[in-house]
């Protein structure tokens, strides 16, 4: 892990001045801090410069740091990732934005065959210390090309790290850690919860982040190590393994149903915090996996296999998965597709009755 | 479909039938070869614009063929780089060494010392002469047939052979297919087996150099067949958008394995002409003319260093041998092509030029060839002490899991332990 570039980090984060901000503001803050502290950090992507990004994640950064550090790119994900590989080889630490995760596919060869393999194939002579930021997931009526959750395409690739925050606090700390990391990191931002946590009830008003405890974000530098899960809630009835938007949906459903769940927010899918998973499942004896991505070969399949392989004799019920359906993300039937309270509730009942 | 009320076309049966075009090379195995329709320009006849000219001013050169060495073996015209005899002799010696190296490594593969090899016979000038026109610390992003760059930059032969043999001395730890070299110390980027991926990377490196106010430029090489990849077009686009200090070398050796250049669009336009559409200065040179290759690369390097932007250079050449040791070109092209190729052999042409200058003779050439072969032979013997592919386990098994990430996560440590356990079962004596 790269050491921090900042020596004057607050000793106790709890004592640092903090403010309640949403996830976009937290991401912007992390980018601002890293641009300020490390001259090799650069940001590029479609509409990220003067305009500040379609989700405003880079708002004000070009004005503050100039066009050499923060600039727009052609609509060419292959070019964006390919150029970032070359910049990394030069010694920069590029933070490209892919406007939607759904748009990342033209850059896949550059990610899979190049960025992920540089260190290995050159035996450490060349590395690709890039962080690819990209909004992912549905729940905003984005249709099939603005809603996908393609994380398992990346977790399947040797040499890529995949990080998914679920709160403003984590988004800032994890993004700083990702940028400082010397390996390529895919940083998927659950866009449904950019502006507030989500209960899964699309017809209820959006709850803003400012009322949520994890929106209290310390000012200045801090980082959260990659590969460490977060226990959202301790409980004894079962373990829920989840990440991103579904952390909040699952928590709301468990609250509503009065289920004493231990909810683990994985935060990093690769490398995975296997110790936290094993410890929790061994304690509860039951395991539910929840993600929004399609089911077949989704990351839940990997989690299910790992839990079965490593915790089988502690299990009192089969491992269950709640996922999106194996269809493209439909536009009008978005809320029929989304793995919301009904699907999660059924799975909870099934696993607890077993 | 044009029958509806919105269409302006006529009903289907009145229209002529469409025909489908599939490109076909002029000559197949057994055919008599006649290259007389190839437009071979007169050496020295091409204008040399100022390096900082608007890109569009190079458009005529994208459809011409810049040549310096004439039939008389003399250098002609404004593109003559006017190199001193010592530099020319060095160029010749590196090209001869490249050829000798290829011969020996090809033989080594046939003898079972490694799995794979790729020669660059007939294309030596496109890498050696071009590399000599760059500074030693300009970053190169080569494809797989630019071993001449490493030799021009003084990379030790034994390092190359260790890599080809994937042996104990291979600093890439036996991970890469033979000839996929990497040497940061020689500003030589790690070669990918995926095609054209290095082109946008070279542009990104050049952009970074410009962002940081550096003075180094980047150059990349790609085959004409691989220009079909989207990566190449992304590279051209980023190069022109950011006016990147980069040189895009397209080595048009006519063949991509068995597919002739027509399958990359070569039937209707030159490869240099693609640069024109992007607003990139574009030159088309005789790739078997070492002086022309040098001069074009030097022009492009000067342009990049003057912040005047990127250059695309098409090196028009011929792949004299198979694509690789896994290829048999007699199955798809006429054997006569090589002997009839109208632009000759780059090593012979440079040699004849030096002789015409009174700076070289056949006797010295013979000695050079002999010395090159001896040098390669000695390095090969030395490398073989480190082992050859398939004979022995040259690398500790744990190295298989290193460098996937900077640090090994738990799952790779677990898998490494398994591999090491398996080793004791599979190879108990090793």
Tell me about this structure:
The complex is a heterodimer of chains A (354) and B (430). Helices cover 33% and strands 18% of the residues of chain A. Chain A has 354 residues and is of the alpha/beta class. In chain A, helix 1 packs parallel to helix 7 (168-180) and helix 3 (77-90) runs parallel beside helix 4. Chain B has 430 residues and is α/β, with parallel strands linked by helices. Helix content of chain B is 37%, strand content 7%. Chain B has helices at 59-62, 85-110, 124-132, 147-152, 157-165, 198-211, 230-241, 272-278, 290-305, 336-340, 346-357, 362-384, 410-426, and strands at 139-141, 218-223, 246-252, 255-256, 259-260, 281-286, 311-316. In chain B, the strands form two sheets. Chain B has a five-stranded parallel beta sheet with strand order 1-2-3-7-6, with helices on both faces. Chain B has a two-stranded antiparallel sheet with strand order 4-5. In chain B, helix 2 (85-110) packs across helix 3 (124-132), helix 2 crosses helix 12 (362-384) and helix 5 crosses helix 12. Chain B is globular and about 70 Å long. The termini of chain B are far apart. Chains A and B meet through helix 3, helix 4 and helix 5 of A and helix 6 and helix 7 of B.
């Amino acid at each position: 892990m790269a050491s921090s570039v900042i020596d004057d980090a607050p000793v106790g984060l709890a004592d640092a001045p903090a403010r309640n901000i949403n996830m976009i503001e937290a991401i912007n803050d992390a980018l601002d801090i890293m641009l300020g502290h490390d001259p090799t950090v650069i940001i590029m992507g479609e509409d990220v410069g003067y305009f500040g990004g379609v989700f405003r994640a880079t708002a004000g950064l070009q004005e503050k740091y100039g066009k050499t550090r923060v600039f727009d790119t052609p609509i060419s994900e292959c070019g964006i990732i390919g150029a970032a590989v070359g910049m990394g080889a030069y010694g920069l630490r590029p933070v490209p934005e892919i406007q939607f995760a759904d748009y990342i596919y033209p850059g896949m060869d550059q990610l899979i065959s190049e960025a992920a393999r540089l260190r290995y194939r050159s035996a450490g002579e060349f590395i690709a210390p890039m962080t690819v930021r990209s909004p992912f997931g549905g729940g905003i009526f984005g249709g099939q090309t603005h809603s996908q959750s393609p994380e398992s395409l990346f977790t399947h690739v040797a040499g890529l790290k995949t990080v998914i925050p679920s709160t403003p606090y984590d988004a800032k700390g994890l993004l700083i850690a990702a940028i400082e990391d010397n390996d390529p990191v895919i940083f998927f931002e659950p866009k449904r919860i950019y502006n507030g946590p989500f209960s899964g009830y699309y017809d209820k008003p959006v709850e803003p982040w400012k009322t949520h405890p994890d929106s209290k974000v310390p000012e200045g530098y801090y980082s959260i190590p990659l590969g460490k899960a977060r226990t959202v809630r301790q409980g004894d009835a079962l373990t829920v393994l989840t990440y991103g938007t579904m952390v909040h949906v699952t928590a709301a459903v468990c609250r509503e149903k009065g289920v004493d769940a231990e909810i683990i927010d994985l935060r990093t899918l690769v490398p995975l915090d296997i110790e936290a998973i094993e410890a929790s499942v061994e304690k509860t004896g039951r395991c539910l996996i929840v993600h929004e991505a399609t089911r077949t070969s989704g990351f839940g399949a990997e989690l299910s296999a790992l839990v079965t392989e490593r915790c089988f004799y502690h299990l009192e019920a089969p491992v269950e998965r709640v996922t999106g359906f194996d269809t493209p993300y439909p536009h009008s039937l978005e809320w029929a597709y989304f793995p919301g309270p009904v699907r999660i509730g059924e799975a909870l009942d099934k696993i607890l009755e077993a | 479909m044009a029958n509806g009320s919105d269409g302006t076309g006529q009903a289907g049966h009145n229209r002529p039938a469409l025909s489908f075009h599939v490109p076909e090379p002029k000559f197949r195995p057994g055919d008599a070869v006649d290259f007389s329709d190839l437009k071979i320009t007169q050496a020295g006849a091409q204008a040399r614009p100022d390096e900082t000219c608007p890109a569009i001013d190079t458009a005529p050169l994208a459809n011409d063929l810049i040549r310096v060495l004439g039939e008389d073996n003399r250098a002609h015209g404004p593109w003559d780089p006017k190199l001193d005899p010592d530099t020319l002799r060095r160029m010749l010696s590196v090209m001869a060494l490249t050829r000798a190296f290829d011969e020996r490594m090809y033989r080594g593969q046939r003898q079972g010392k490694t799995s794979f090899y790729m020669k660059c016979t007939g294309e030596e000038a496109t890498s050696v002469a071009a590399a000599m026109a760059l500074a030693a610390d300009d970053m190169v992003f080569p494809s797989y047939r630019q071993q001449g760059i490493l030799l021009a930059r003084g990379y030790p032969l034994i390092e190359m052979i260790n890599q080809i043999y994937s042996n104990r001395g291979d600093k890439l730890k036996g991970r890469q297919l033979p000839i996929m070299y990497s040497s940061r110390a020689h500003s030589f980027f790690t070669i990918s087996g995926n095609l054209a991926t290095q082109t946008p990377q070279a542009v990104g490196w050049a952009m970074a150099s410009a962002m940081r106010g550096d003075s180094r430029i980047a150059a990349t090489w790609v085959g004409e067949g691989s220009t079909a990849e989207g990566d190449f077009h992304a590279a051209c686009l980023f190069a022109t958008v950011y006016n990147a200090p980069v040189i895009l070398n397209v080595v048009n050796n006519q063949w991509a394995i068995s597919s002739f250049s027509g399958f990359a669009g070569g039937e209707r336009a030159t490869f240099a002409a693609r640069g024109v559409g992007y607003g990139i200065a574009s030159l088309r040179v005789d790739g078997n003319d070492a002086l022309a290759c040098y001069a074009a690369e030097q022009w492009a390097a000067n342009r990049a260093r003057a912040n005047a932007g990127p250059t695309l250079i098409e090196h028009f050449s011929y792949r004299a041998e198979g694509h690789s040791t896994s290829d048999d070109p007699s199955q798809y092209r006429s054997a006569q092509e090589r002997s009839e190729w109208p632009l000759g052999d780059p090593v012979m042409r440079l040699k004849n030029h030096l002789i015409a200058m009174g700076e070289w003779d056949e006797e010295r050439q013979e000695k050079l060839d002999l010395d090159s072969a001896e040098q390669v032979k000695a390095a090969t013997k030395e490398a073989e002490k480190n082992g050859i592919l398939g004979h022995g386990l040259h690398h500790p098994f744990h190295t298989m899991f290193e460098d996937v990430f900077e640090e090994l996560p738990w799952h790779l440590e677990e898998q490494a332990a398994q591999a090491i356990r398996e080793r004791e079962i599979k190879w108990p004596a090793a």
